[in-house]
Write the structure tokens for this entry.
Amino acid sequence: MNLEDRLRAVLRSEAQEELPADFVPMVVARLTVRGQPKYGSVRAAGLAGLAAVLLVALAVGSWLVQSWPGRSSFGDTNLNEPMPTPISSPASASPAPSPTPPPSVAGLPSPPESFDPTAIPWIGDAAWGTTAGNYENGIAIGAIDGSGYRKLAEGHGSFGTILADGRALYVRSRQDTYGSELILLDPNRKPVLLALISVPYAVAAEEAVVYAGRVQTEGPDAGREGGLWRIPLDGSPESLVLPPTGGWDDHASIVVSPDGASVVLGRCNDERTECYMEGRLDGGPTQVLSEGRAIGVDVRHGLVFRGAGGILRLERASAPPTLVAEFAADLPLQARVNAEGTHLLTWLAIEGGRDQELLAIDLRDLTQRSWRLDGIWVLTSLGGSRYAVLEGVPTGETSPGWHAIIDLEEGWLGFLPPIRPPGD
Amino acid sequence: MAAAQAGDKDAFAQLIEGEATTAYRMALVILGSPTEAQDATQDACLRAWRDLPRLRHAARWQAWFRKLAVHAAQDRARRLRRIPEIRIQPDDGMLVSDPTAAIVARDRLRRGFRQLSADDRSVLTLRYYSDLTVPDIAEVLDIPLGTAKARLHRALARLRAVLGEDSA
């Protein structure tokens, strides 16, 4: 075979994979409105003075948290109704993160004096932050006031998870096609390469175990999924949870209950037009569970997933799923179940994408609350059971690192400026 | 198309839904990194959103978007030369390898391809991955036809040199 033919074969073998299912929604969420000022000229101009004042506050190193009580709606919802109606509060009241603190908190009530940002479970007192620019990410630990700040890793286009004990999991992309490196960063020890994995991955069991798709590194299937593995962080032997499945080896999601009793792997076909989930619920047998895309495991070990008609819950493998919230199939919806499994959080662009709504559904009684923000935000996995935390998406006009925080119990919405090391 | 050009984000989402994967795979070949390829595809999408009102012929959408994707991948490839890969701190810490995660040696041809410049990888990708004709390559890269032929020839020659193969 000549060089051209060999090259053709190699290049085609290099590019088999699909974009993540949420790629297009994420891109669309970053789009600005063409021909209009980023935040709306009237608002931006009227609030510029306040922004300057808040910038000074930042300069002296104070943390700013502004609350927004009264921006939530609360009540029982009839699941037969269409998607919950947004609350009738003032529209576009909070902007995307900017080089200055969000200006549109002007005139809104002050945060509760008792509120302590260090109480937000970023997971212990560790801080995850974007460290530089639009394209470089990193992991840093330290107190939320910036003390004890220490970068564990920084670089180009990667992400990770900070564990409760202050260690961090970090994914480093490889320059070949053999998956990504999952690295355990310990502030007091050398980094450990745990495995070559595909993303996503999930952590469970007091954050001592990682569930991840391993990537085959040898033989004709090199570079392909090698099934779902349980990888203890203490070096104990790994175990195969689910074997690879030919033709359905695109791991679209991995969800695990905190105790590891429920483990579900979502698999999709190459086109991601058909997805199904298999795994175990509440320690039961491993089996195919349902069609759809897994979102999380609730407090009762029910599987919450996106399927026909919206978001559903499967409490027993033998019983049909029940509807939790109705959503059209084509909505660019970001959804997650919080760490304790008490709330389903959905983040959805509404009204043409300029405004977005966070909907929190209490999975114990299916009551709902909702909040609206404008600007570009991404729902994070931070916040424990009580808070929803959204990270501002930096654009050409905005700086990275702003977080919006919503207290799911008291209903207020506030903003935290970027976490920076002292003197940075 | 008209709706997307008028600012309808849903319509734009439908447009890029059909093209993003193709663009991503092309970027992946050029960049060799899924993360970088995703970022390049995103760059192309954002640029497409910005410049879409200037696209006069809807029938040219695919070719136009492919052009944006290739340029975005080339830009990223040039950035990569300046931005070091992930730095794990402390700097002197050796990575402790899991013996089960040993990595097999990469294919010789793949490694040779990776040694080429971004421009060489781009032209070879368009020819041997996307199967474009030389005139189409010239259009995507915004270069004259003769230049496209010369670049393709030189890229293949450099690949042969890297691989230590005689030119055939």
Notes: Residues 34-111, 121-136 of chain A have pLDDT under 50 and may be disordered. The longest helix of chain A spans residues 41-59. Residues 204 and 258 of chain A are 5 Å apart (CA to CA).
